[in-house]
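An example makes the point: we print one protein in full, the chain in one-letter code, the fold tokenised, without further comment:
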Amino acid sequence: MAKTQRKTIDKVFVMLGVVTTTVLLVAGSVMWWGHVFITDQVTTELKSQKINFPPEGSPALDPATYPGLQQYAGQPVDDGVKAKAYANEFIGKHLEKAAGGKTYAEVSSAALLDKENVELQAQKQSLFQGETLRGLLLNAYAFWTFGVLAKYVAIISFVGAALMAVLVALGYRRI
């Protein structure tokens, strides 16, 4: 009787292993699809914007001002990592200079009080456009990061499925 119970338990565990392997394969496949979809969408949208880092040696990419961007000189902004670098280290530095370090919110509030100040209105417009582009690029980076994380989860799921398949095969030999 104990041998029959053991075989029943083994069958249950083998079936649970099959279900777990299937779930891991499905989860890994969905995550892999998510990775491919997200990274493709981000790349396609960024490429369509035709944003490029200034060329190497250009005064617009002075190594003293933009040390973190030298590795991207002349390249298109076509992935999330480059989008973040361009947003924070290129646009961000320009925005700091646009209104003496003031933010859009600060300049906008001042511009509302002084509608005749042409310089303030121009700063407001520049900061609005710059912060909008910067925000959009940082959103591209955020989605890119989700895509990369989905890739790693997919790989972990596939490895887990392979391990479970081996355990199922070993368990199946017992029944």
